[in-house]
Specification:
The complex is a heterotrimer of chains A (130), B (348) and C (382).
Chain A (H helix, E strand, L loop, with lengths): L2 H6 L1 H6 L1 E5 L5 E2 L14 E5 L3 E10 L12 E7 L5 E6 L12 E11 L6 E9 L2
Antiparallel strand pairs in A: 1-2, 1-3, 4-5, 4-7, 5-6, 7-8
Chain B lengths: L2 E8 L3 E4 H7 L4 H7 L4 E4 L6 H16 L6 E7 L10 H9 L6 E5 L5 H15 L4 E9 L14 E9 L5 E13 L2 E2 L8 E2 L5 H20 L8 E4 L5 H10 L3 H5 L4 H4 L6 H12 L5 E5 L4 E11 L3 H4 L6 H6 L3 E2 L2 H7 L8
Parallel strand pairs in B: 2-14, 4-5, 4-6, 11-12
Antiparallel strand pairs in B: 1-7, 1-8, 2-3, 6-7, 8-13, 9-10, 12-13
Chain C lengths: L3 E8 L10 H16 L6 E5 L3 H5 L4 H8 L6 E5 L5 H14 L6 E8 L6 H6 L14 H16 L3 H15 L13 H6 L2 E3 L2 E2 L8 E10 L11 E10 L14 H14 L8 E3 L5 H10 L11 H4 L15 H5 L3 H16 L13 E8 L4 E9 L1
Parallel strand pairs in C: 2-3, 2-4, 9-10
Antiparallel strand pairs in C: 1-7, 1-8, 4-7, 5-6, 8-11, 10-11
The chains are: A mainly beta (130), B alpha/beta (348), C alpha/beta (382).
Chain lengths: 130, 348, 382
């Protein structure tokens, strides 16, 4: 990933910065300027809690080339207590144990690296609670 | 008085047993656990490095301090495994913790002493009044060369300490540093694994510095070994810290809480700081604590600390070292370990 | 608005076509469509293509294809909506004719996927790069999440998914243009290697090369080209949030529902009137979800449709008589046009062993990404 693009996204990647629509309470992650539910433009930023619950999940066995070393790995759509939803890998567990309803904490991890000499790209991953 | 207002630690969930490594190289597993007192060690996942460990530990420190992270005026990370050769780890950690942009940031390196070095500087800045709060972190994902004695110990983890002047969890009563040029262990630019001087790492290096620093701070402060509830000495293997402690007059009971190396391994810059975190997790008000680090090259930093009434009330705000050492973990085969530590050659 | 008819069709076989380039594939299908209608002139060309740029480094397909068809000078442009690019091109062609802007429009879809590009990554560029692909999701992974959500909500099983593949392979075995002409059993599907849990290799459409093209004109000019035109009586396009995480119910494809409603409304028909349908079965779960969202099968009942025979040849509503994306192949940009050709042939009674008896009204549904775009067309034999 080119560094300007990665840099631009650091608020949501590093701190889970999201937006809440003051009109309808819809939380969007990453933050947007127009609410996708009601088209409201009065949005406040908030940082999502570093925890959530799995909405749906899979275990990727055939991954993109950058992720072959990690396969098989679990991925899930996770909903935080604020109602924000995000797609994350879920790690440090048996991938097949990642099923809807699982509680996870969201931890700061290395997500991808651009070859041997490119930048390191961080973000959040889920880890089962307990 | 300045002191610790928050602390946190992090240890990855992957482990490898000494016997698994010994078996790989046709060594006697008993000899390793008897000789070095090492049973297993932590191993970073492919997605864990000094930066992620620092963020996890730093979040714990902020939680236990209960402060707005943006008021932190300085952040230093000591490590010998900063993921970038050029580009600071500390900027990423500061950004993730919500500390940027009004913060002084630097990455430190001093072999295994870089963590206490970061703590030392952070403390000094708070004491001087230059900044209100400062964080010092020691973290590493150290690599030992395959089939080298270091492979049994080099592990991953770290701890973060947030210093301030109000609502102290721990008072810092004194510090002392002892440094000489002693080439016992090194890694040249561009080299993947460190090299060491074998038995030269013992007497003239580890023991000379750890004992000199510890004796000097005891002399200066007027405390005796028996005044302390806990003592932590850098843990390159199981034996050295026990031996150093014994020579200084500490008992097994005073050493055992912070002596994590048999199951954690040597987390290098994170070693004695993580040992300290394990002590703080269970310390009682007024407990006196001695910590002496060691970094090859070589030097030791000593701190005399005293727990406050507030400490026990804040422990549960973040994960304890025990919960991470004894919590969910995955034991790796040597093959998985080689993959996780990127010892397998792949095409680009 | 003028009535629009399809009057000619041409397509390559689908599969790993090592000897043909992107432009070769296009020329074969496009020339086939023109020849079938005896046409030597068109007013405009729409080329559906997902990613010539990433697959073979070739953009600017409009002029390239017009040139290689010997028609440099004609208005031509590429149309892109990921895997729904072919369907979107048909929608554009329809509008060009219906509006009166063009009298003869060539609509083609083409993709060359086997020239060495990293297919997983190219396809993933149809998902949200910032919030999905960054974290390592793949297209099978996204549909696997849809499948798991559907299982949670409706009790769908891996076996239900397997039946979709079994049915479509059976249909595809009758299609000479299909990539895979062998039948598979439920056991074979459930034993095939895991791609993204719960989806296995045989739940997934293959990587394919291929092209398909149709010629459109106003219905009142159709007799110039054919005595068996097929009317396009409805077209509907809809979108949804691109990231799966942004959908309240990941088991439901809202874009498919909306695009179908729009097409039904324009056509003045209901789902009950549809006698043959091609829907976007890029993965087995997609056929189930698309059938439910388009109203062809009741919501929550899609899972059992394939096993029960309702959607098989001879069933109440035969679905994917061509073999679908699963068996016929899925050269992504070509798929939407190839679906139209299957229904075109069905409504003309030219489907041979796959013929649905007395089919008069048919539907195609073509989808982009994990359901972020969907295009539905409804056709009527004349």
């Amino acid at each position: 990933m080119p560094s300007p693009r990665y840099w631009r996204e650091r608020a949501n990647r590093f701190r889970l910065e999201a937006a809440r629509c003051k009109g309808c309470d819809r939380v969007t992650y990453p933050a947007r300027t127009i609410c996708p539910s009601c088209r409201g433009t009065d949005l406040e930023t908030l940082n999502l809690s570093r925890k959530g619950k799995v909405v749906t999940s899979t275990v990727v066995h055939v991954g993109p080339s950058e992720f072959t070393m990690e396969a098989p790995y679990a991925m899930a759509v996770v909903e935080t207590p604020e109602g924000g939803r995000l797609m994350v890998q879920v790690v440090d567990c048996e991938p097949s144990d990642v099923q809807p309803g699982l509680e996870v904490s969201l931890e700061f991890r290395l997500i991808r690296r651009e070859g041997h000499s490119g930048i390191l790209c961080y973000g959040h991953k889920g880890v089962p609670v307990g | 008085m300045a002191g610790i207002v928050g602390y946190g630690a992090y240890i990855p969930r992957n482990r490898i047993k000494s016997e698994e490594i010994a078996r790989q190289w046709g060594k006697d597993p008993q000899a390793i656990s008897r000789g070095l007192l090492l049973d297993e060690k932590s191993v970073p996942g492919l997605d864990e490095d000094t930066i992620t460990i620092s963020v996890a530990a730093g979040l714990g420190a902020v939680e236990r301090a209960g402060i707005d992270p943006s008021v932190i005026g300085a952040l230093y990370i000591g490590s010998e495994s900063h993921p970038y050769a050029v580009k600071p780890s500390g900027t990423i950690v500061s950004e993730a913790l919500g500390i940027t942009p009004e913060v002084h940031v630097a990455d430190f390196e001093f072999a295994c002493k870089a963590g206490t070095e970061a703590m030392f500087v952070a403390l000094g800045l708070v004491e001087s009044g230059r900044v209100e709060y400062a964080m010092g972190i020691g973290a590493d994902t150290s690599q030992g060369a395959p089939n080298d004695a270091l492979e049994f110990s080099a592990s991953a983890g770290g701890a973060a300490y947030l210093f301030g002047k109000e609502n102290l969890l721990v008072e810092v009563l004194d510090t002392y540093s002892y440094t000489t040029d002693t080439p016992d262990f090194w890694r040249r630019e561009g080299e993947f694994y460190p090299r060491h001087g074998g038995r030269f790492t013992g007497e003239p290096a580890y023991f000379k510095h750890v004992l000199s620093a510890s004796r000097a701070i005891l002399d200066r402060s007027g405390y005796k070994a028996s005044d302390f509830r806990h003592a932590i000495f850098h843990m390159p293997n199981g034996k050295f810290p026990l031996s150093a402690g014994k020579q200084l007059g500490f008992t097994k009971e005073q050493l055992e809480v912070g002596w994590l190396v048999p199951t954690m391994g040597n987390t290098y810059s994170g070693s004695s700081p993580t040992g300290l975190a394990a002590v703080l997790d269970i310390a009682e008000p007024d407990d006196l604590i001695l910590i002496t680090s060691f970094g090859s090259g070589a030097g030791s930093d000593s701190f005399i600390l005293r727990a406050t009434d507030l400490l026990p009330q804040r422990v549960e705000r973040a994960a304890t070292v025990k919960s991470m050492l004894e919590g969910p973990r995955r034991y790796l085969t040597y093959g998985q370990y080689a993959k996780f530590r990127e010892k397998i050659i792949l095409n680009d | 608005m003028r009535e629009v008819a399809i009057v000619g069709a041409g397509m390559t076989r689908f599969g790993e076509i090592w000897e043909s380039s992107l432009r070769d594939l296009f020329v074969e299908a496009a020339a086939g469509a023109l020849n079938s209608a005896g046409a030597d002139h068109v007013d405009s060309i729409f080329v559906g293509n997902m990613s010539g740029g990433q697959f073979v480094g070739q953009e600017h397909l409009g002029p390239l294809m017009a040139d290689h068809l010997g028609m440099a000078g004609v208005a031509a442009a590429r149309v892109e909506s990921a895997c729904a690019s072919g369907g979107m091109a048909l929608n554009m062609g329809f509008m060009a004719v219906a509006s009166g802007c063009s009298d003869a429009v060539l609509v083609a879809g083409v993709e060359k996927m086997t020239d060495g590009a990293d297919v997983t990554n190219v396809l993933a560029s149809a998902a949200d790069q910032e919030t999905e692909v960054y974290h390592g999701i793949t297209f099978p992974g996204l549909y696997a999440m849809i499948a798991r959500a559907h299982m949670e909500k409706h009790g769908t099983t891996e076996e239900d998914l397997a039946w979709v593949a079994v049915k479509n392979h059976k249909h595809g075995s009758l299609n000479p243009k299909a990539q895979f002409r062998g039948e598979v059993t439920v056991e074979q599907v459930l034993r095939s290697s895991m791609v993204a849990e719960p989806l296995r290799l045989l739940h997934c459409s293959p990587v394919s090369d291929g092209a398909a093209a149709v010629l459109l004109c106003p219905l009142d000019q159709a007799e110039k080209y054919t005595d068996k035109p097929v009317k396009v009586i409805g077209t509907g396009v809809a979108t949804d949030s691109i990231a799966l995480a942004d959908r309240k119910d990941p088991a439901f494809l809202g874009s498919v529902e909306k695009s179908a409603e729009r097409a039904y409304k324009m056509a003045g028909v209901t789902p009950k009137d549809i006698q043959v349908a091609e829907v976007h079965d890029c993965f087995a779960i997609a056929e189930i979800c698309c059938l439910e969202a388009s109203g062809l099968i009741e919501k929550g009942k899609g899972a059992k449709a394939a096993a029960s025979g309702v959607t098989s040849l001879g069933g109440r509503i035969p679905v994917n008589t061509s073999g679908g994306l699963k068996s016929k192949g899925h050269p992504v940009g070509a798929t939407g046009v190839a679906q139209a050709i299957e229904v075109f042939e069905q409504l003309r009674g030219e489907s041979g062993e796959r013929q649905v008896e007395d089919a008069r009204i048919g539907l195609t549904q073509n989808m982009g990404g994990s359901g972020a775009s969907s295009v539905v067309h409804i056709y009527q034999g004349v």
